[in-house]
Specification:
Elements (H helix, E strand, L loop, with lengths): L7 E5 L16 E3 L6 E3 L17 E4 L9 E5 L4 H19 L6 E3 H11 L1 H4 L10 H11 L4 E4 L15 E4 L71 H4 L17 E8 L24 E3 L7 E6 L4 E2 L5 E3 L5 E5 L6 E11 L5 E7 L15 E5 L5 E3 L2 E3 L10 E8 L4 H4 L9 E5 L2 E7 L2 H6 L8 E6 L2 E8 L7 E7 L3 E5 L14 E2 L3 H18 L14
Parallel strand pairs: 15-27
Antiparallel strand pairs: 1-5, 2-3, 4-5, 6-8, 7-8, 9-10, 9-22, 11-14, 12-13, 13-26, 14-25, 15-20, 15-26, 16-17, 16-25, 17-18, 18-19, 20-23, 21-22, 23-24
Helix pairs in contact: 1-2
Length: about 550
């Protein structure tokens, strides 16, 4: 759908230019094609009755840059990709400003198509088609443009989401400030601009997921565009080993993924840029052969969130990965990051707790059973809502009064610095098998639960303390088993809780020293990077655990 002659032009005398160049997301804003500054449309008295926020199908020059001294505004015909981009940006913004738990994915039939149908005349100068074929074309467009859009075709197994809500679509890059017109594509035919004014470096904002960067890539590093590429049209090809990593959703994990279950755990992998022989990363050359694990590394996200894969499938996780809703019997979800030494803290708010529901909250090692209440085995410690009972190895003991809807709970753990676990680096997983699932690679690790249970040993000086609305309930557990501990939530039936990893808490403890769990985001990046480097420089390195640090 090329832009045609069906355009509108407006010349309006304006008063002054917005010197601060501030952004007002959610308002109708225009970007000057020469100075690249942003202005709200009402700054120049432009008629916005046929405009929408986050539109990209226009050309605009402010009164300072335009040769006539007036503003120039030309509204163009939008193609389906631009219409979908604008629709999803507006839906995302509305959800952020109106919903308690903002969404990032939207239903084709319930959200996207009704929005485009309602605002068709505002989104494009093209006539509304007589035949209702455009909804199918919209789906094809968003499924094709994977460098811009996320696609989720079916609900997670065990999810209560109705099948008719799918497919759902979202934006790969959730930074709405990156949306802007592709002026670099207009350089050759824009008669009112000078050739020296429009250089490509100003206009990389429209290329989502490539030039804009920064959506959950491992180690927190932004991918840079390849030399010689053009920002307006550059796309990674499927043979590029970085292709999959660049299509990660906003919160750093694929929407469709394998779950940790049946004795196996799955760790998302990405190409290791420091691996020897990086040219071997081309996936095509490994067709029918096992892919060497040392060419890849664990893919990390620099924010601590609830894990999408390390949970019971029936639990429903919110789009921001900070709220969980229970379903049927007890089942558990762990956080994405764990701790092995030091003192750490996080909070949980009890949002909704209908009658006959319950929660057990606390800390769990990676091998804690996901299809059981927290505190069921040797790998986890919990605090129950009913009667305030504490649990470990399925043994309940009186600890405090219970808690319920509206309460804010605090969870503190202190782990000694001199244990073997504390001195060790994280697993590299490079000796594990790589499997492919829905275009992504994962390390597959077998759980040896019996062996791990027999090797457990206490960590003298360790302790766990729970807090209720800022008041310490006393030491719940001490001298707990040594290991890596993750914040964990287990729910019974349909209660809803939200987790706050910090750094700001509603009731920060005042009588103890701690670090917020949010600090572990970048901390894990540093630890895993060091573990990967040691793997490559050491002649013999245990793939699961690098040697202890030497003092």
């Amino acid at each position: 759908e090329a832009a045609g002659d069906n355009s509108e032009a407006l010349d309006a005398q304006a008063g002054s230019v917005d010197e601060e160049n501030g952004r007002q997301l959610g308002e109708i804003e225009l970007q000057c094609g020469i100075c690249t500054k942003w202005f709200t449309a009402d700054t120049f008295g432009i008629d916005t009755t046929s405009c929408l926020p986050f539109m990209t199908n226009y050309s605009f020059h402010c009164n300072v840059c335009h040769h006539s001294g007036n503003t120039y505004f030309l509204r163009k015909q939008a193609n389906l990709k631009e219409m979908c981009l604008s629709a999803l940006a507006n839906l995302t913004w509305q959800s952020r400003t109106q919903d308690e738990h903002p969404k990032t994915m939207f239903s084709k039939d319930k959200d996207i198509i009704p929005f485009i149908d309602k605002y068709w005349e505002c989104m494009t100068t093209r006539q509304r088609p007589g035949k209702m074929t455009w909804p199918n074309n919209i789906v094809k467009t968003m499924c094709k443009e994977r460098d811009v859009f996320l696609v989720k075709e079916h609900p997670d197994p065990g999810s209560k989401d109705p099948e008719e809500d799918y497919p759902k679509f979202g934006l790969l890059d959730q930074d709405l400030a990156n949306i802007g017109p592709a002026y670099d594509n207009q350089k050759q035919n824009n008669a009112v601009s000078t050739s020296g004014s429009l250089n490509g470096k100003f206009f990389n904002q429209v290329v989502w997921g490539i030039a804009a960067g920064g959506s959950g890539k491992g180690r927190g590093a932004k991918r840079k565009q390849q030399d010689g590429g053009t920002t307006g049209t550059a796309k990674k090809t499927r043979s590029d080993p970085l292709f999959s990593a660049q299509r990660l959703p906003p919160h750093g994990y694929p929407l469709e993924h394998p779950f940790n279950k049946d004795g196996y755990r799955y760790i998302l992998a990405e190409p290791d840029p420091h691996a020897p022989d990086p040219e071997k990363l081309e996936l095509d050359c490994w067709a029918g052969k096992p892919i060497p694990g040392d060419l890849y590394r664990a893919c990390l996200y620099e924010r601590v969130l609830l894990a999408l894969h390390d949970r019971a499938p029936q639990l429903k996780i919110s789009d921001d990965r900070l709220t969980v809703i229970g379903e049927k019997g007890y089942s558990m979800v762990r956080a994405s990051h764990g701790v092995r030494k030091g003192a750490w803290y996080f909070e949980i708010s009890m949002d909704e707790m209908p009658p006959d529901t319950a929660a057990r909250l606390g800390w769990s090692q990676p091998l804690g059973n996901l299809q059981a209440p927290l505190g069921y085995d040797k790998f986890s410690y919990s605090w129950r809502s009913k009667k305030g009972t504490k649990f470990h190895q399925s043994i309940g003991k009186h600890y405090s009064s219970g808690y319920g809807q509206g309460d804010i709970l605090g969870f503190y753990i202190s782990l000694p610095e001199d244990t073997e676990t504390a001195k060790s680096l994280p697993d590299t997983y490079k000796d594990k098998a790589l499997i492919k699932f829905k275009s992504y690679l994962y390390f597959e690790e077998k759980d040896f639960v019996d062996k791990a249970e027999k090797s457990l040993k206490q960590a003298p000086g360790s302790q766990i303390i729970f807090f209720k609305n800022g008041a310490s309930q006393g030491i719940a557990f001490k001298d707990i088993f040594e290991g890596v501990y993750f914040p964990a939530i287990s729910l019974y039936k349909g209660c809803t809780v939200s987790i706050n990893f910090g750094p700001y808490f509603k009731y920060p403890p005042r009588d103890i020293t701690y670090r917020p769990m949010s600090d572990m985001g970048w901390g894990a990046v540093v630890e895993h990077t060091l573990a990967d480097v040691l793997y490559h420089v050491e002649t013999e390195v245990d793939g699961r655990r690098s040697p202890p640090w030497e003092p």
